[in-house]
Amino acid sequence: MELRDAEFKAAYGLLEQLPRPEKPEIVFAGRSNVGKSSLINKLTGRRALARVSSVPGKTQTVNFYSAKKGGVYLVDLPGYGYARVSRSEKQRWSKLINGYFSDPERDIALVLSLVDFRHPPTADDITMINFLIDCELPFVIVLTKADKLNKSEREARLEALKSELPEYDSLTLVTFSSLTGEGVEGLMGIIDEALCQE
């Protein structure tokens, strides 16, 4: 799969603005500041394709990136779970994300559900994972910020996840670090496999 020619296409803040499905979509979902933009940049080999911010809640739109050679869209969803957002803004995000996923014509090849490896999954993380399971959408859990943990901390977190994640035995987990590139090769393989099943 070739993603290095990916280019920013457009950002959509309202459900009514979302474009009609044209090609398979690889979706990036996760709480605010979990590292979605960093993952997109790493997978595409581009340092600043997706804007990286240290400020949670920065991505407030559904951002589409077009990988022409790969024939796919990379879709960056707004981060969830950020407390310092008005109720009306949260409702807008919810309508936007639910509307995106509920469109029966949309060709969602794979969802990358990002969870911060350093901490137990949040209630919002679990809600998202259960939603993906219930909707029978193909997804993989990406454990971000893996470079922040030493070997024993990693082992402890991986063991804890067995009881923290729903339907753990049927899940695919990939550890990822935007700093070292850990997990990129494995994720590219998973993306290739998902697109081959289209």
TrEMBL record:
NCBIfam families referenced in this protein's UniProt entry, alphabetically: GTPase_YsxC, small_GTP
Keywords: Cell cycle, Cell division, GTP-binding, Magnesium, Metal-binding, Nucleotide-binding, Septation
Boundaries of every EngB-type G domain copy: 22-197
Gene designation: engB
PROSITE patterns: G_ENGB
Species in which this protein is naturally found: Candidatus Faeciplasma avium
Reported function: Necessary for normal cell division and for the maintenance of normal septation.
One Gene Ontology term from the biological process aspect of the record: division septum assembly
Source species taxonomy: Bacteria, Bacillati, Bacillota, Clostridia, Eubacteriales
Statement: the UniProt record of this protein carries the keyword Nucleotide-binding: yes
PANTHER family found in the cross-reference section: ENGB-TYPE G DOMAIN-CONTAINING PROTEIN (PTHR11649:SF13), MSS1/TRME-RELATED GTP-BINDING PROTEIN (PTHR11649)
Gene Ontology MF annotations: GTP binding; metal ion binding
Alphabetical list of SUPFAM superfamilies matching this protein: P-loop containing nucleoside triphosphate hydrolases (SSF52540)
Name this protein carries in UniProt: Probable GTP-binding protein EngB
Family: Belongs to the TRAFAC class TrmE-Era-EngA-EngB-Septin-like GTPase superfamily. EngB GTPase family.
A GO-annotated cellular component: cytosol
Pfam family membership, one: MMR_HSR1
Cofactor(s) this protein requires: Mg(2+)
